[in-house]
Write a structure and sequence with these properties.
By secondary structure, the protein is mainly beta. It is built from 6 helices and 34 strands.
């Protein structure tokens, strides 16, 4: 790493020693620990139960993923408490957490960054598909002590088993699934199989998904935009240029012993999708990725395990204006690595310390490239500690990051180097005052370096319909967050409540200058936006609960509900594209053979808009239903069906740049089958 070669060498040596140590481990697998479903590993390497976490967490488990909609990551998670989607067409949709998106929400795969360009622009797809995962963990709010400044808004960690960590029982296990959807003539299939014998295990997986333009319940142009601009809404029952075509496959293998494992994997992702923003523009994405991961478990001493991970990716994203005319090309080539030393639990005291580094070269090539070539290097060190004394406890941690960005601004000849030194810290206390009740209070201070777009942007950005201008003099964004947490799990009722307030110093906001720019190539006029820093306050809550109305053995009828709200204000006024409140109610039946649910979700109107270019969004109510049948005694086959938006309601996601030209999909019936073995 150019900014710190010694630290880079140290980190790679630590990762390498972890892999070699795992490979040298003994041959028995009898003591290999199994995964506990409700333990969250994303927040801290030693893992904490959801019911004992002082931060807001959520999990999508393997069983849910096997029957989940074939969708991009943002669309799949949309609707969970505190989570929405950028909804930039079905092919490119990133999670929005507590009103924050882009570089503030870090999407990981097995704890390592994606090394793609999805945070650069909302029309860039995430190079990880939910179908690859056997588990997805979401952390809402600051989680930067383990993952660095880019996670200032939250983390989505896509966990897969491409590098096996245990020999499968019986020597083989896996899952295959296929489904079809009516709203977009969609069809998808995925499969994953792990085989093992002795000390070796191998995995192969693949995903194929193809959809056409999806049906819409109303004209693509919103009534508000039509009225504001004096244009006709048109007719139209299809969302133009909203098709997708994705295929990804991967292989991996590992050596597994009683003291650890060491493995490597390769993944290849290809995707083509329409941009929606422009009817003639489509995107082709290709990423090749290599990973290595290992763990060595110590027999005794102050530490229980040393873990290491390394990922390298070569990513290309090409925008085509027609079949034979490539336009802008985005390249991202780089690596990321981390090593974590986990302390042995003693008297309720857990802890971990680690080092993380990355190096990435980002290029944008073409007439519409609005960001120059930028080299990004970062190194960080952290420690997190937790003392759990049963009826009460404490948490704390500290992290330091150094991030360097180097590039030659568009139209200039001299390279600019910016280096940011960031410190983050947290402290928390928790109580268990009654059976099933957990109360926590946390205070966190986090710092984030500006992204390459926020610093270097200078040009027309077609995806956001704006001329974007960065500021090379931006400082680190700083935020202090106070959050209260309550978990309750007793008798028939379970519930979670998170209330938070964040104060930003130097919040990086994109604001209109009032100027207009004539883009001669397209003969279009675009408003000019500039990245500026301001004070800001975000506050809100997330609430979810379930009550068992009736239960007999494995049969249960439950009433479930959730709600969320976020309010965001900067010194210039309301922050842009902040989702409105939502409330969801669900009646759910579960049993060994049959599951069913009926759901009503209401999303409120959003009229707190940032500027004249952001229109308010009307409220909407969606009615959904689902069912799953396991017809055989072994319950390894599941036949499932889901109906969404049964009333064919017009719905628009306020967090989306395209909300006024692309509503959410209309009525949809999805059917499929999954087989686990």
């Amino acid at each position: 790493m150019r900014s710190s070669p010694a630290l880079r060498s140290l980190l790679l040596a630590a990762v390498g020693s972890t892999v070699l140590a795992g490979a040298a481990a003994a041959q028995s697998t009898a003591n290999t620990p199994t995964t506990v479903d409700d333990v969250i590993v994303t927040g801290v390497p030693y893992g904490v139960s959801q019911r004992a976490a002082v931060i807001a967490t959520d999990v999508v488990d393997e069983q849910t993923l096997a029957t989940a909609p074939a969708a991009s990551l943002g669309d799949l998670l949309n609707g969970r408490p505190g989570v929405r989607s950028t909804d930039f067409a079905p092919g490119a949709s990133r999670p929005v957490i507590r009103g924050l998106s882009g570089p503030r929400v870090q999407v990981l795969t097995n704890g390592i960054g994606l090394i793609d360009a999805s945070s650069v622009s909302p029309d860039h797809a995430v190079a990880a598909d939910p179908a690859e995962a056997n588990r997805i963990e979401i952390i809402r709010g600051p989680a930067t002590l383990v993952y660095g400044g880019s996670a200032i808004g939250g983390v989505v960690n896509v966990l897969d088993d491409r590098i096996p960590t245990a020999i499968p029982e019986g020597g083989v296990e896996g899952v295959v699934s296929a489904q079809a959807s009516s709203v977009d003539d969609g069809r998808s299939a995925f499969g994953r199989v792990t085989v093992g014998s002795g000390n070796f295990a191998f995995n192969i997986d693949g995903v194929k998904r193809k959809t056409d333009d999806y049906d819409i319940p109303a004209p693509a142009i919103s009534a508000r935009r039509a009225a504001a601009e004096g244009i006709a809404r048109g007719d139209g029952d299809k969302q133009p240029n909203s098709y997708t075509d994705l295929q990804t496959w991967g292989v991996g293998g590992s050596y597994i012993g009683d003291k650890g494992f060491a493995g490597v994997s390769y993944k290849d992702t290809e995707s083509e999708y329409g941009t929606v923003a422009e009817e003639s523009v489509f995107i082709k994405l290709h990423q090749k990725r290599w990973d290595a991961r290992g763990e060595y478990r110590f027999d005794d001493g102050p530490f229980s395990a040393l873990r290491g991970s390394y990922g390298h990716a070569d990513y290309t994203h090409t925008e085509f204006e027609d079949v034979d005319e490539p336009g802008t090309v985005f390249n991202s080539d780089g690596w990321e690595a981390r090593a974590d030393l986990v302390q042995r639990q003693r008297g309720g005291w857990n802890g971990a310390s680690g080092v993380q580094a990355l190096s990435r070269n980002f290029q944008a090539i073409g007439e519409e490239a609005f960001v120059p070539t930028v080299d990004i290097d970062e190194v960080g060190v952290y420690t997190v500690q937790r003392l759990d004394l049963g009826n009460h406890g404490f948490e704390g941690g500290l992290r330091y990051d150094r991030r360097e960005l180097s590039g030659t601004p568009i139209g200039e000849t001299s390279e600019v180097n910016r280096t940011f030194d960031n410190w983050s810290a947290s402290a928390a206390a928790f109580l268990r005052p009654a059976p099933g009740l957990f109360l926590g209070l946390s205070l966190a201070h986090n710092e984030r370096a500006p992204s390459e777009v926020e610093l270097f942007a200078d040009g027309v950005h077609i995806a956001t319909a704006a001329y974007e201008t960065g500021d090379l003099n931006l400082n680190s964004e700083k935020v202090t967050t106070l959050e209260g947490t309550a978990h309750y799990d007793h008798c028939r009722f379970t519930g979670d409540l998170h209330v938070y307030h964040s104060w930003y110093d130097g919040f990086i906001d994109e604001r209109p200058t009032g100027e207009l720019f004539l883009f001669e190539e397209e003969n279009e006029t675009f408003p000019v936006y500039r990245f500026v820093q301001t004070g800001a306050k975000f506050y809100g809550f997330e609430l979810e609960g379930a009550y068992a109305l009736w239960q007999d053995g494995d049969r249960k009828l439950s009433l479930e509900g959730s709600a969320d709200y976020v309010h965001a204000q900067t010194d210039f006024g309301p922050a842009a594209r902040i989702p409105p409140y939502s409330v969801t109610g669900r009646l759910a039946w579960t049993s060994a053979r049959f599951d069913a649910s009926a759901e009503v979700r209401h999303v409120g109107q959003q009229d707190r808009v940032a500027n004249a270019f952001e229109l308010p969004t009307d409220d909407y109510t969606l009615v959904n239903a689902s069912m799953a049948v396991r017809p055989f005694t072994q319950q390894n086959v599941t036949v499932f069906a889901e109906a969404r938006n049964l009333t064919n309601e017009e719905a628009r996601e306020h967090a989306s740049f395209l909300k006024d030209i692309a509503p959410l999909a209309g009525r949809n019936l999805r059917v499929g089958v999954a087989y686990r073995f």
